[in-house]
Amino acid sequence: GFLRDLCEVLLYILLPPGDFQNKIMRYFVREILSRGILLPLINQLSDPDYINQYVIWMIRDSNCNYEAFMNIIKLSDNIGELEAVKDKASEELQYLRSLDTAGDDINTIKNQINSLLYVIKVCDSRIQRLQSGKEIDTVKLAANFGKLCTVPLDHILVDNVALQFFMDYMQQTGGQAHLFFWMTVEGYRVTAQQQLEVLQSRQKDGKHQTNQTKGLLRAAAFGVYEQYLSEKASPRVNIDDNLVAKLAETLNHEDPTPEIFDDIQRKVYELMLRDERFYPSFKQNVLYVRMLAELDMLKDPSFRGSDDGEGESFNGSPTGSINLSLDDLSNVPSDDTVQLHAYISDTGVCNDHGKTYALYAITVHRRNANSEEMWKTYRRYSDFHDFHMRITEQFENLANILKLPGKKTFNNMDREFLEKRKKDLNAYLQLLLNPEVMKASPALAHYVYDFLENKAYSKGKGDFARKMDTFVNPLRNSMRNVSNAVKSIPDSLAEGMTKMSDNMGKMSERLGQDIKQSFFKVPPLMQKTYSDPDHCRVAAPIDDNVDDNIPLRVMLLLMDEVFDLKERNQWLRRNIKNLLQQLIRATYGDTINRKIVDHVDWMTSPEQVADAVKRFRDAFWPNGILAETVPRRDKAIRMRTRVAGKTKLLEVMPDELKHIIGAETTRKGILRVFEMFQHSQLNKRMVYVFLERFLETLFPQNKFPELFNKLHSRSKQMQRYKQRLHSTQAPSLQKSLLVSHIRLLMHL
Fold first, then answer.
1. Residue 686: pLDDT above 50?
2. What gap in Å lies between CA 298 and CA 289, rounded to an integer?
3. What is the pLDDT of residue 84?
C-alpha cells in the first residue's frame, strides 16, 4: 500500500496532467511500478543471501586464504553453516577417494584428503560444543592456565596494540609517569635529531640561525624536565637524585642534544622492566592475555609445550607460541603413517656464468608404513626466502613462529658465515617440520613437500619483487616506529606539555619556512589550472577539528560502533583519529572530486545507458521470452555463501587497522558488520530509508518529508501505535493532575 501511494505521487510529479487524469492508465502503471518493479527489487536488495553474493563478487580479486577460512569455521556459532561446510567437504572427500591416480599425484591428493578430514573434524567438534552449550572463553581459560608467550618489554613499547594495554595497566598501578616519560623522550629525541640535521644543512648553505634553534631545543628539553623530573612535577618520575641533578646542571650550562635524557631514560626502562609492580606483574594480569589475543599470539592452554619453567619466547625459537584454538588441539588429523625429516647436510659455493652464490644440500627422509625414501635436493638462500614469504602470506600465524635468518650484503661467501647460516637454516627447517606446526596447518604440508622435492624450485615472486619486499618491509616498520614515538605523548599530559609543544611547533614552522624559501625559489613548471566549480560540490577542504569536521565525526562514531572502542583509552582513540584524518584528506579534494564526476559522466553516457537497457532486456526477456522466476537457493548453498562472504571480508582486513586496534578487535568488528546484514527485516527498513532520502534529495521542492509522514500515518501499525500511546498517556495525565492537586492541598 505504501508503494502504491508513493508511485501515484511520482506519477503526479512526472506525468503530464492529461495523462495523469487517465485513471485506467495511471492505475495500470502504478501496479506495474509498485508490484512488478519496486517490491521485487526491494525484496531482493533486502535478501541476506543476495547481499552475501554481492560481497563475494566485490572482493572477487582477492586470493583465497586458508587461515581466514579456518578462523571463520572455528568462530562460527551457526550450526547450519558448519553442517553445510561439513557436507561439502565430505562430498569432495568422496570424490578424491574415487580417483585412480599414481605417481606424484598421490601425494597431492593425500594432502588434500588430510586437509578435508581436518575441516570435517573441526566442524564436528564445533557443532558438538555448540549443541552441548559448553562454549569456552579462551581468554579466561588462558589466564587461569598461566603459561603464555613472553613478549619482551622493548617489543611492547614499539607496538601500537601492545602499548595501549601496557599503558592501561601502568595507569591502574600508578606508574604512568614512568611510561609517559619514556615515550616523551623518544619523541623529543626524534624531533631534536631532525631539527639539528636541518640546521647543519642550512649552515653548509651559509644561513645561520644557530642560537634561535638551540634556544627552542633548550625550551623543549626544559619542558620535559619540568613535566616529569622537577620537584613541582605531579606525578613525578622516581629516579636517582644524582642523575636528576646532573641533568639540571647540563640543561643550565650546555647546549641540549638529542641524547641529553638517555641516561635517565635507560634507568626508567630498567625500573619498568625489573620492578615487580610493573612489567613482571603485567605478565600475570588479564590485560596481558587480552594483549596476546589482539596480537594473534594467544596460545591455546591445552598446548603445554615444554615444562622447563621457561616461558615461550617471542623471537621465533622452537619454543615459540603456536596459535591454536581449542578445537585445533582436540581434533588434529593424526596421519602418523607419513613422517618427513630434513636437514642441511652440506653447503658449497657455486659459480654460474660469473654469478657466485651459496648452495645448500638438503637431505630428506620420508617414511610411511610400507616404505622409506631418501633423496637430496639443492636450494639457494633466495629459494628459502621466497618459500618463507609464500607460507607466511598464506598462514599468518607462522609469521610469529618462523624467523628466517637475515641477509648479508658483504662477505656472504665467507666459510664461517656460511656455516652459521647453515646452522640457522637447519633450526628453521626443524621448527617448520615440527609435528605440532604441521598439525596446526594441514595445508602447509603441500608447500613443504613442494619445496623439498628433488626438482628445480619455482619461485612464487620475481627477483625484483622479493628485493623490494626485503627493502620496503624493514623501512616501513622503522618509519612506523618513529611515527608512533613522535605521536605517543598521551592526551592526559597535554596541558603540561603545551609550552614545549608550542616551542617545538614554532621552531618547526620557522625552519620549514626557511627551507621553503631556500629550496623552492624556482617558479613551478606548471601553473595552477582553473578548478571547475562542479567538482567542488562533491567534496570540499576539511578542518581537523573533530567538532566541526562532520565526515571525521561520522567516521569516529562508526569506528566506535563497529569496533566497540568506547571503553578504550584516549591514546588509542587519538591514533584512530590520526588515521581517519589521513584517510579523509586522501579522499577529499579536487583529484577525487574529478574522478567522482568523471565516473558519473561515464555511467550516464549514451553508450552506458544503452548497455544498461540492453542488460535489463536480456535479464527479463532472454531471447525475447519472459524470464522465469529464479528459484530460491538451497539452504546449504546459502549457508556456504555466508561462510565464503565472511572469509572474503577477513581476507581484505587491512593490516594497518590490525596494527592500531588489534587483530581480535578488528576480526570481531568486521564479523559484526557482516552479521548486521543477515536480517532481512532490518535490511528492508534500511532500503526504505535510502529510498525516501533519495526522493527527498531528487525532488527538494515537493515537500517529500511531510508527504512521508502522511503516508506513514496510514499504516495500520502506526495507527495501533498511536492508540497505545494515547491509552498510556491518558492515565499518566490523570496521575500527574492528581499529584499536583495533592501537593496544592499539602501546601495549603
1. yes
2. 7
3. 94
C-alpha cell at 83: 553442517
- What is the CATH classification number for the domain harbouring 240? 1.10.167.10
Q: Is residue 80 part of a domain?
A: no
Which long-range contacts link 191-199 to residues 24+ away (Cβ below 8 Å)?
Answer: 191/220, 191/486, 191/504, 191/508, 192/217, 192/220, 192/256, 192/257, 192/258, 193/258, 195/507, 195/508, 195/511, 196/258, 198/511, 198/515, 199/511
* Domain range for 349: 339-469
d(CA 743, CA 725): 27
At residue 444, the 3 state secondary structure works out as: helix
Same domain, 279 and 403: no
The whole-angstrom separation of Cα 727 and Cα 745 is 28
Look up cell 587483530; give the residue.
663
Inside any domain, residue 742 = no
Q: Are 273 and 386 members of one domain?
A: no
Overall size of the chain counted in residues: 748
Confidence of residue 81 (pLDDT cuts 50, 70, 90): very high
pLDDT, one tens digit per residue, over 248-268 is 888 888 887 888 888 888 999
Virtual CA dihedral for 588, 590, 596, 599, nearest 10 degrees?
-150
The verdict on residue 225 lying in a domain is yes
The secondary structure of 361-395, three-state, reads: EEEEEEECCCCEEEEEEEECHHHHHHHHHHHHHHC
- pLDDT tens digit sequence for 660-680: 777 777 888 888 889 999 999
Do residues 285 and 361 share a domain?
no
- pLDDT confidence of residue 140: 55
Over residues 11-33, the pLDDT tens digits come to: 999 999 888 899 899 999 999 99
Question: How many folded domains does the chain comprise?
Answer: 3
Q: Rounded to the nearest 5 degrees, what angle is found at the Cα of 324, between the Cα atoms of 132 and 307?
A: 105
Contact predicate 183/491, CB 8 Å: no
Return the residue matching grid coordinates 623439498.
452
285 shares its domain with 225: yes
The answer to whether residue 365 is domain-embedded is: yes
| 373: phi then psi, degrees, rounded to nearest 5 | -125, 150
Any residues with CB less than 8 A from the CB of 51 and at least 6 apart, and which?
Answer: 45, 677, 683
H-run or E-run covering 339? strand 339-352
- Rounded to whole angstroms, the Cα distance separating 723 from 490 reads 54
Domain match, 291 and 349 both: no
Residue 162 CA to residue 170 CA, distance in Å, equals 13
Are 167 and 179 in contact by the 8 Å Cβ rule? The answer is yes
Taking each helix axis from N to C end, the angle separating 176-204 and 463-487, rounded to the nearest 10 degrees, works out to 110
